[in-house]
Structure formats: structure tokens, C-alpha cells
Amino acid sequence: MGTEILFLVEEGPDGGYTARAAGESVFTQADDLDALREMVRDAVRCHFPDEAARPQVIRMHFVRDEVIAL
User: Fold this and answer.
1) Which secondary structure element, helix H or strand E, spans residue 11, and what is its range?
2) pTM for the full model?
3) Roughly how many angstroms between the first and final C-alpha of the chain, as a whole number?
4) What is the dihedral of CA 27, 29, 34, 37, to 10 degrees?
5) What is the model's pLDDT at position 1?
6) Contact status, residue 24 vs residue 8, Cβ threshold 8 Å
7) C-alpha span between 11 and 22 (Å, rounded)
8) Contacts with 3 (C-beta within 8 Å, 6 or more apart), sequence order
9) What are the tens digits of pLDDT across the range 10-69?
10) Sheet harboring 4-11: ordered strands across?
11) What backbone torsions phi and psi does residue 18 show, to the nearest 5 degrees?
12) Range 51-57, long-range pairs (CB < 8 A, 24+ positions)
């Protein structure tokens, strides 16, 4: 495992946020960004129980779609 894991963060359709790890089957959600950060940390700890194999850095990339009418 590398030393970093990337999460793609999006606003949920009904509020809150979702975070999905790129290249790993890790997903979590929360009502606000502070809670999301903690949920992401917890999800990484659960997905990588072996501390030696666990990523040392979590990168959160915020994705926002914008539609522009012509």
C-alpha cells in the first residue's frame, strides 16, 4: 500500500457529504465536513487494520458538478 489514499468528496443530493476512496472499496458519509473527516479516518482504520499497511496520509478531493445553460 502507498503512503497516501485519495477520497473523492461530493455533496449529497439531500444534504451532507459522501466520500469514496479512489482504487479502494471504502465509502462513508456525514452531515458536515468535520464529521466527514472523522468518518473518513475511521473508515481507513477499519479498512486497513494492520497499521503498518495503513496509508499515512488521507487526501480529500472535493468534486463539484456545475451545469451552465447556453
Assistant:
1) strand 4-11
2) 0.87
3) 45
4) 0
5) 52
6) no
7) 17
8) 55, 56, 57
9) 999 899 999 999 999 999 999 999 999 999 999 999 999 999 999 999 999 999 988 899
10) 27-30, 17-21, 4-11, 57-62
11) -120, 150
12) 53/1, 54/1, 55/1, 55/2, 55/3, 55/4, 55/5, 56/3, 56/4, 57/3, 57/4, 57/5
Helices (H) and strands (E) in the chain, counts: 1, 4
Q: Which amino acid is at 25?
A: S
Task: Measure Cα distances from 65 to 10, 11, 47, 68, 70 in Å.
Answer: 9, 10, 28, 10, 16
Question: DSSP label at 67?
Answer: -
Distance CA 25, CA 21 (A): 7
